[in-house]
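During the no-cost extension, the postdoctoral fellow (Dr. R.K.) reprocessed legacy sequence entries with the updated structure-token encoder. One reprocessed record is reproduced below for audit purposes.
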Amino acid sequence: MSSAETLAPPAGAAASRRTAAARSPYDVEAVRRDFPILSRRVHGKPLVYLDNAATTQKPVPVLDAERDVYERIYANIHRGVHLLSVESTDAYDAVRGKVRALVNAPDAREIIFLRGTTEAVNLVAQTYGRRNVGPGDEVLITALEHHSNIVPWQMLCEEKGATLRVAPINQKGEVPLDTFRALVTDRTKIAAVAHVSNALGTVNPIREMADITHARGIPLLVDGAQAVPRLPVDVQELGCDFYAFSGHKVYGPSGTGVLWGRAALLEAMPPWQGGGDMISSVTFEKTTWNVLPYKFEAGTPNIAGVIALGAAIDYVTSLGLDRIEAHEDDLLAYATECVQSIPDVRLIGTAAKKAAVLSFTIEGVHPHDIGTVLDREGIAVRTGHHCAQPVMDFFRVPATARASFGLYNTRQEVDVLAGGIRQVIRMFR
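Re-encoded structure tokens follow.
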């Protein structure tokens, strides 16, 4: 048994923690005290951080965990017999079990540590894709995708002489299942979709999409970067074949991320990068590969970052992802009501099922100007195309302003946002 499996929490541990947490009220003020950056002021105003879809702030347990590694146990992992190496290795490998429990993966061996969602998608495109996609084949994505789930597939299709197919969206920002189903053919070799749109907040029906692709024996990759921080995720219930997410969006360090994949698929895929730790033996004549998950983890990883990611997982799990989802759903509903009542504001993305993202424009005001004025009020939002230019093209806007909510945001901050939007309108009228 691997050290990751040995140190993994029992299968029901995360669920038990969520159940226990659900018995107490969600205390957002107590949560906010865990995030030191939220106490600072910006341009003399209290910080209102509403850019969580881009990246999240870090709680004290995550800051402490990363500092503790460097102050107390830091050494390279999987290679040393001295105590520091053993302690670092045990702490690092324990996180694999935490990730397994977080997404309910069948086996800790299926958890691959990477730099983020972008690297995870590229890994699948350059290993599974290169081996299974050829001339005349097709790769299916949707019109909602982040560039990180478009460009790797474009590169693969160009190299292999394949075609990239795109399932369109409707005016609400949803992917109709009938149009998605119609694009799945015998030529489709893999499909890749976002669980939650970073630009619009649309939540895709992953289980139904997986059923559609599996009916033709086609694997489904899911970009879960926006889902894992705010939704309970169960890869077995979703039925997908690959699932990727980034540590920095789930209140952990940047430069960390995860790819989960079905063991049978990962076993059949060649390594992506060569180097230390991903080998079993090396001679000048032949190299053989290490076992899962190490086959895909070449070189010295972000040791302290992964260990701190484990602390972030502990943190969100202790709060309860079901309660985080409910809290953010309440904020989104309240913000939608407040913002759409303001004259000259247009909401972009009105799907029936959304996560905590509110994209909008103001008639006659460029989104960058919106962001600049809001910043002077202490409000941090994202403006631009959000690495989703095809979405902007569909809605015929150059960019949007995007407020995205996290587990520490409040209704009072939504009120500040609405006041800031009114201030923008006054300035430009």
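DSSP finds 16 helices and 17 strands in the chain. The first strand starts at residue 41 and ends at 42. The remaining legacy entries will be reprocessed before the final report is submitted.
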